Amino acid sequence: MSPLEMALLVHRGEFHLRELEPELPLEKFLKNADPKKTRKFLEKCGKEELERQKELIRKHNVKLVSFWEDDYPQHLREIRYPPAVLFVRGDAELLKEKCVGVVGTRRPTSYGVNVTKRFVKLLSEYFVIVSGMAFGIDSVAHKEALSSGGKTVAVLGTGVDVVYPRSNERLFHEIVKNGCVVSEYPMGTRARKHHFPARNRIIAGLSDAIIVTEAPIKSGALITVKFALESGRDVFAVPGDIDRKTSEGTNYLIKSGAYPLTDEEDLETHFGIRRIASPSLDDDKKKIYDLLRSSPKTVDELVEELGWSVSEVLRVISEMELMGMIWFDGGAYRLLG
């Protein structure tokens, strides 16, 4: 059987991976297969559907990788329910590289956005960043990986020819060009609610570790964590305000044993990586940088501790913001990366 035929058996006939016999021709397999599933497959997938799928695969330059091929990611092979076939657009080799999954809420605060950028900026120097291309933290993680010169993989709950959400169309094509999009679903598959929890197991399976930067207690990100823990992956969570809904999930994960992620040193220590040295700073910027290393500061606090005028402080922090070194959140300036 071809990988396409196997994918259609799973998603049109509802066969399980363990039932497939890839060494057999499709016709011979169906003769001895479960009659109910065979009937369902044949009703939904005649010769016309096979040809339509083949045409879409050619049109979008899609690579299919089955569970039984050497190109199938080893990490993904180890999860409880590995997909039978992957549909891949872009650089399929990225699926075999070291990956870190970054996930979170679809409605992040500025805090969630900025801590995601901060940690992805570091991680993308050493790992492929994996996420689900949803609104919010997923999109921030993909965009930051690309803008930092790294690579990223988007795992979809649709076919790899279907952009969802539509507002991420530009991001989708950037990922295809500079990373890859991957799905277990046949071409043309539209978004359905149950696809996304299933998609999350692939994010967990591809990743060496999962990082949750901001998430409420009822979040798809926590479903990804569940799959990650089942597969023996490390889980990190960024702590947040105890009275903020979007931090309830991450704070719960930390209480439950996830690694608390509070700065870059946590990642450097865990993964054994060393950061590339920061660009040299003039004396004024270095003074502010050193103060912000200890804790976030307001403008008034910087004025008081440095003994500078307000205009001097504002001039230097404006330059540092333009350099992408600091960001303003909750009334105070913080280091970014």
UniProtKB/TrEMBL annotation:
GO molecular function: DNA/DNA annealing activity
Domain Smf/DprA SLOG: 64-267
Top-level taxonomy: Bacteria, Thermotogati, Thermotogota, Thermotogae, Thermotogales
Pfam family, one: WHD_DprA
Native species: Thermotoga maritima (strain ATCC 43589 / DSM 3109 / JCM 10099 / NBRC 100826 / MSB8)
Record InterPro entries: DprA (IPR003488), DprA_WH (IPR041614), DrpA_SLOG (IPR057666), WH-like_DNA-bd_sf (IPR036388), WH_DNA-bd_sf (IPR036390)
Name of the protein in its database record: DNA processing chain A
Similarity annotation: Belongs to the DprA/Smf family.
Coiled-coil residue windows: none
One BP term from GO: DNA-mediated transformation
Ranges where the DprA winged helix domain occurs: 277-326
